[in-house]
């Protein structure tokens, strides 16, 4: 019965596997991130291609070169990391190890039962880790924009990797059944040992014999009175789904006259190189092959946006990203099918105010009209974001924001903040966004210049 701890070790080994990444609307440029993810009406030439190409046709936007724009986001909506930390810092594994050592020193029924009880405790804890996803995104890009009074153009390159991973713990029933058989064996051995009469002893030995022929996981030898664990095949899996998209796009915008006044219209045709990864790692044999787990494809798509500027500093905008719905094939080892990129529609409104020669401000609100479909194991999202920027001497910017997920799910609201420094046309922007309990954290960094 020394092998009783083997399955407990196999169970916990599933938790040491690799984890990947998942993502929302837009990019990771720090200005938008710091302002609650807004940008459809409040964007500049530095990020118009990512949020709303119509904003390139603006009165006050200068030439921009942004290199690089980088960002990262990690989400743990079900607090898996906290659960793992609690498990690691707890004493359940230590108690199991102590019970096994004590049984090895004194192999009696009491110590054997202690091993069974502690294995059950570990199993119950590991059950809570199953189907809790870790998610995130990585982004990198650069932009060159040439906006003027009524026209605008921009060229951008970007790469975005997004996805998620989760443990599918399938061995809970196996461990429960194993523990049940071990407990039954201990009870039967005690019955033989404590039999009051020869008749009771014979009956108990017969029960032991029946157990030896019927048990699934515990192989008992009545002659040597020893037990070994057999037929235990770990079935738990680590499931990973991800999509990496490299884009090259050219944005065009123009102010046009309508019966209700002037309005900007912008389009971004783009070439997309797409790689999907769909991977299942079994606890007992984890092998990854690009030939079987990665599928590459390429396609074209288009973003379309409009923006209306008013004399009082208000701008209203709307954008449809990925106007052409598309589906990308996966290896489908997880059984979750292909990854779809559906059109994303977002509305935004912003107001800019010049207070005096020192300070000016911008407040903005963005709302997802459509829900964003999950890519990995994350949940649907539909965000409402609000943000504000205070600019001093056209050199320093302080930004704050708030973002709320309106879809059902476990994503917490997040708050954000950021700083910008832009002396002599050179600028550096940083941003950090996080939920109150750090279930989701994002950070962005950007360098560039304008004139």
In short:
The chain is α+β, with helices and mostly antiparallel strands and 451 residues long.
| Quaternary structure state of the chains depicted | single chain
Name given to the CATH homologous superfamily of the largest domain: Outer membrane protein transport protein (OMPP1/FadL/TodX)
Spans of at least 5 consecutive residues whose pLDDT stays below 50 are 1-23
- Total number of helical segments? 9
Could you describe the largest sheet, including whether it forms a barrel?
Answer: 14 strands, antiparallel, barrel
Helix and strand string, N-terminal first?
HHHEHHHEEHHEEEEHEEEEEEEEEEE
Rg calculated over all Cα atoms: 30 Å
- The appropriate CATH architecture of the largest domain is Beta Barrel
User: What is the total domain count?
Assistant: 2
The helical percent reads 10-25%
Overall mean pLDDT stands at 86
CATH uppermost class of the largest domain: Mainly Beta
What's the overall geometry? elongated
- Which range does the strand content fall in? 35-45%
Quickly give the structural class: alpha+beta
Identify the strand order in the major beta sheet. 1-2-3-6-7-8-9-12-13-14-15-16-17-18
Number of strands: 18
């Amino acid at each position: 019965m020394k092998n009783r701890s083997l399955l407990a070790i196999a169970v916990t080994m599933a938790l040491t596997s690799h984890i990947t990444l998942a993502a929302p609307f837009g990019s990771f440029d720090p200005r938008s991130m710091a302002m609650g993810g807004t940008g459809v009406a409040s964007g500049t030439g530095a990020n118009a291609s990512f949020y709303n190409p119509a904003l390139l046709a603006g009165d006050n936007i200068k030439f921009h070169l942004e290199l690089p724009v980088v960002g990262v986001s990690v989400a743990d909506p079900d607090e898996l990391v906290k659960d793992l930390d609690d498990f690691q810092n707890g004493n359940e594994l230590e108690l199991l190890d102590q019970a096994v050592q004590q049984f090895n020193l004194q192999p009696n029924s009491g110590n054997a039962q202690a091993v069974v009880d502690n294995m059950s405790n570990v199993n119950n804890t590991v059950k809570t880790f199953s189907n809790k996803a870790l998610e995130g995104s990585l982004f990198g890009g650069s932009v060159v924009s040439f906006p003027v009074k009524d026209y605008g153009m921009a060229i951008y390159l970007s790469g975005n990797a997004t996805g998620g991973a989760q443990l599918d713990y399938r061995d809970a029933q196996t461990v429960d059944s194993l523990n049940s058989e071990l407990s039954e064996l201990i009870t039967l051995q005690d019955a033989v040992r404590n039999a009051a009469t020869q008749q009771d002893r014979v009956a108990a030995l017969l029960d032991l014999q029946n157990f030896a022929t019927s048990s699934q996981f515990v192989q008992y030898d009545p002659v040597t009175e020893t037990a070994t664990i057999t037929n235990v095949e770990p079935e738990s899996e680590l499931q990973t789904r991800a999509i990496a998209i490299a884009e090259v796009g050219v944005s065009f915008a123009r102010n046009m006259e309508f019966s209700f006044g002037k309005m900007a219209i912008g389009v971004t045709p783009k070439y997309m190189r797409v790689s999907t990864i769909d991977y299942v790692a079994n606890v007992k044999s984890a092998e990854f092959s690009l030939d079987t787990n990665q599928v590459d494809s390429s396609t074209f798509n288009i973003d379309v946006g409009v923006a209306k500027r008013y004399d009082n500093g208000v701008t209203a905008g709307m954008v449809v990203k990925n106007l052409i719905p598309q589906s990308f094939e996966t290896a489908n080892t997880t059984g979750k099918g292909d990854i779809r990129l559906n059109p994303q529609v977002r509305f935004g409104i912003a107001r800019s105010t010049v207070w005096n020669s020192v300070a000016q401000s911008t407040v903005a609100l963005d709302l997802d009209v459509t829900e964003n479909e999950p890519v990995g194991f994350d949940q649907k999202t539909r965000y409402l974001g609000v943000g504000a920027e205070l600019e001093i001497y056209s050199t320093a910017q302080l930004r704050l924001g708030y973002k709320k997920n309106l879809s059902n799910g476990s994503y917490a609201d997040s708050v954000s903040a950021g700083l910008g420094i832009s002396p002599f046309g050179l600028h550096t922007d940083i941003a950090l966004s996080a939920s109150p309990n750090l279930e989701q954290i994002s950070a962005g960094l950007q360098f560039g210049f304008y004139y």
